[in-house]
Design brief:
The protein is an alpha/beta fold. 31% of the residues lie in helices and 25% in strands. The longest helix has 24 residues. It is globular and about 70 Å long.
Length: 393
């Protein structure tokens, strides 16, 4: 990403009308507003912000998250952890349950001076982490995953095995804290539901931490977070850090929940009109699910946005025009709600706002960067090489 402050993206002459399509585009001014919004909230709530960099997979974007020097981040793969470690990041939470095969890579990062925090929720995981830590002679900090809403993994705060797992880790000098993720908040459709989800997320994590402390076990980190709850939390007493990732770009799912506005979506995909099927009311583009992903997250919301809403190159929504179908390399645009299908000749460039920013970003090797309507730069060799690393290619 190039904002005039980084050298890893190639400068580009021209406009979005000149780029090869489909391609991912980030509006840097919108992105910076999104970043500042949550950073200010974390400051008010007196917690450390640990952004999840799986959304953007970009060192250049990460530089905006912690201005001046690398700060704490969250990752979802060891490839991301290794790539960000090479970029100078030394405080990393790997927020996916650990398994034995990955431990040699974890230990290698630890020996490089990286604090890589692991996640687990079972005796089995705690035991092999403790054993590996002893054999390596390096404490491997581990957090116990707490289930606050039945969304995925984790232990309930009153689970019989919580304290024993904590002891296994503590005896090996590995117990780092507790972590929870309010995954069901992505289905909280009102501000009040999101506020209650944030309160429950906090209360659950703090209850687990207090139970461990009551058993004489130290709990240094109490980590919570999802993009909806991070923006809805009013009181994080007892919490030490807040995690979120989607907020950097936002997307139509978050707009559908009211967490952001459509105009806050910083990521889009530029596509080109390649044909028409007037008998079906279709406009065809060169951006299918390989460009947008198959994510249909808004299908469960009040307003289904298909595969994405359509704007012109300046970012102005085209009323009633939606990307309603996708094959691998073809996107289908149709009109809805009585809208008239616009006249868009072959060669017309458009932008599609995504359902799920994380999934859409992962389809692309880098970003073209705009500031409003001004094209600042595009992916260069260093950016593409970094993307290949974090994507495991």
């Amino acid at each position: 990403m190039n904002t005039g402050e980084s050298s890893v993206c190639a400068p580009v002459a021209g406009t979005l009308a000149d780029v090869d399509t489909p391609c991912a585009v980030v509006d840097v001014a919108t992105m910076r507003r999104n970043i500042a919004r949550l950073a200010d909230r974390a400051d008010r709530l007196a917690v450390t912000l640990r952004p999840h960099v799986k959304t953007t997979k970009s060192l250049d974007v990460a530089a905006f998250l912690h201005p001046g020097a690398p700060g704490p981040v969250t990752v979802s793969t060891l490839a991301e952890a290794e790539a960000f470690a090479d970029g100078g990041y030394t405080d990393i939470t790997y927020a996916v349950g650990i398994e034995p095969y990955k431990l040699p890579r974890v230990i290698a990062l630890s020996r490089r001076g990286v604090t890589l925090r692991l996640l687990l929720d079972s005796y089995e995981q705690a035991s092999f982490v403790a054993e590996a830590s002893r054999e390596a002679g390096i404490p491997l900090p581990a957090q116990i995953e707490i289930d606050c809403d039945g969304h995925r993994g984790g232990l309930k705060p009153d689970a019989p095995g919580l304290v024993e797992i904590g002891r296994i880790l503590h005896d090996a000098r590995c117990l780092d804290g507790v972590l929870t993720h309010a995954g069901e908040s992505y289905f909280a459709r009102t501000a009040e539901e999101q506020r209650l989800a944030a309160k429950n997320e906090r209360d659950t994590a703090v209850a687990a931490a207090e139970r461990l402390r009551g058993a004489g076990l130290p709990v240094n980190v109490v980590s919570v977070g999802s993009t909806p709850t991070a923006h809805a939390a009013e009181d994080l007493t007892g919490v030490t850090e807040l995690r979120a990732g989607n907020y950097v770009f936002f997307d139509l799912v978050m707009a559908g929940l009211g967490v952001c506005r459509v105009e806050d979506i910083a990521l889009s995909v530029v596509v080109t009109v390649i044909g028409h099927r007037p008998e079906h009311g279709w406009i065809m583009t060169d951006g299918g699910w390989m460009a947008m992903s198959r994510d249909r997250g808004t299908a469960a919301q009040v307003q289904d946005q298909g595969y994405g809403l359509v704007t012109d190159l300046a970012g102005n929504l085209l009323p009633g025009l939606v990307m309603t179908a996708a094959s691998q390399e073809h996107g289908t645009l149709t009109a809805r709600d009585g809208a008239v299908l616009p006249e868009l000749p072959v060669g017309t460039r458009l932008r599609i706002l995504p359902n799920h920013a994380c999934a859409t970003a992962a389809q692309h090797r880098g970003y073209h960067v705009i500031d409003g309507t001004r094209l600042l730069g595009g992916p260069g060799p260093a950016t593409e090489a970094f993307w290949e690393r974090v994507s495991g290619w």
